[in-house]
Amino acid sequence: MGPFAYRRIVEKNDAYEVMAELPGMDEKSIEVKLANGGLMIRGEKQEEKEEKKKDYHLHERRFGSFERRFAVPEGANTDKIGASFKNGILTVRLPKKPEAIKAEKKIEVKAAA
Q1: 104-113 long-range CB contacts below 8 Å, 24 or more apart?
Q2: For residue range 3-43, what is the model confidence (pLDDT) as tens digits?
Q3: What pTM did the predictor assign?
Q4: Which residues of 44-74 are buried (b: 16+ CB within 10 A; e: fewer)?
Q5: Closest CA to 17 of 4, 32, 29
Q6: What 3-state DSSP class applies to 78?
Q7: Which helix (H) or strand (E) holds 106?
Q8: Which residues contact 44 (CB under 8 A, 6 or more apart)?
Q9: What is the dihedral sign for C-alpha 37, 22, 1, 51?
Q10: How far apart are CA 16 and CA 11, in angstroms?
Q11: For residues 88 and 43, what is the distance between their CA atoms, to the nearest angstrom?
């Protein structure tokens, strides 16, 4: 598996959230874009390791890239999309348009007669 481990898409009352686990990456190597009604997450991971000992010299480089696309839900407000990255987890939040937010009504529970 590459540097991208898909996590989940969650629907909350006021927003949709796309969460992705991106171990070993930082926010500078991640790109989030909106294009043609889709959300694109792209990134590149580069690791470099160098070890020098008396009798040998080891230099390793590893590269990995990924690109994933998701359909933007119809009720999402694309003007207010935001993304945050913390502890290797990317969270892209797509707030819902006011008309897409489900109205909640609390029902009073009465004792039966």
Answers
A1: 104/13
A2: 555 568 888 889 999 998 888 788 888 999 998 889 999 98
A3: 0.70
A4: ebeeeeeeeeeeeeeeeeeeeebeeebebee
A5: 32
A6: helix
A7: none
A8: 29, 63, 64, 65
A9: positive
A10: 5
A11: 13
